[in-house]
């Protein structure tokens, strides 16, 4: 059953409680490979469900617009101080509701409508909020996009420099949502400095790896950093902005009163708990294990003939181009879900297919590492993925695989279910 127990919810609203219990069991029974998901600790779950959700706290610690902040201010201050220690930054703002509003605050802080922003193209692995056309950031600002080389699947920093010199952006983003390789923060910083742009590093996917020392940090290179607090950081659904001292005031004003009202205090408390966990030695071990698992899984998938974008991974994320397997990403993802393996279909660079029916799969090892799976499990996981992709229409194969996965996972506890 769900842990902590939801007995009051079950009594007051059994329909919702039943769905929550079913979702907890689903998360327990499946190999969860969605790169942006994870399992939070029971302590984070408990913090998220506290009476802090009852309290309005517009403003910042010591400068609120509502009374009764005697206990809220220390909670937010703790979250800020822990973020500064974990990431080694001058300043942190823990109030953004999620990653997209956090990124929008960067625009509000440093740009005027119509100014030029430069970010990675969405089909190449970037994020909607880095200036892509369907996003408000692409509609309200002049956007130019860089991509990856077709032959390597990697960013060519010489091409990025040429584009930046030609377009002269005021804001540059590095980072994205489907990047399997190490981000070269020093190279991006050199280009941003050359053209006079503010460099923003979006580390939403790799924040936990950075906190655990398993990926280079943008601190000292990018003066502005945005991140979500879930994914590899294993916190609640929320976001943070971090910066050097020179950019702090503009960012704080952009978050409040520029974009948001009162922060979600229960989320702030859970962020503080997660950051406390991230400061411990065992979190560093976890972060390095995430990378080791991804590397082992990539190697095992390659051995089975899967075409990996860029040829592999340096972090938690693997991007597969299924073209050579004769199946598109969407039917493959649905078959894998039915077989007990949860991931998402995804575009790949230079994808000839449409975004809602793309050629690729995106997967990550954050959640399975939290469950305790190791490099020894990765060859079997690759075998299951291969079997399902090859037999996507065979319900008997899918059912058998789901049973094998449930049997394996029974030996690996899940926070939030027991």
From TrEMBL:
Keyword flag Transferase: yes
Predominant location category: cytoplasm
Subunit: Homodimer.
Species of origin: Actinocrispum wychmicini
Catalyzed reactions per annotation: (6R)-5,10-methylene-5,6,7,8-tetrahydrofolate + glycine + H2O = (6S)-5,6,7,8-tetrahydrofolate + L-serine
Protein name: Serine hydroxymethyltransferase
Binding site for (6S)-5,6,7,8-tetrahydrofolate: 122, 126-128
Signal peptide: none
Gene: glyA
Residue span, Serine hydroxymethyltransferase-like domain: 10-385
UniProt GO BP: glycine biosynthetic process from serine; methylation; tetrahydrofolate interconversion
This protein's pathway: One-carbon metabolism; tetrahydrofolate interconversion; Amino-acid biosynthesis; glycine biosynthesis; glycine from L-serine: step 1/1
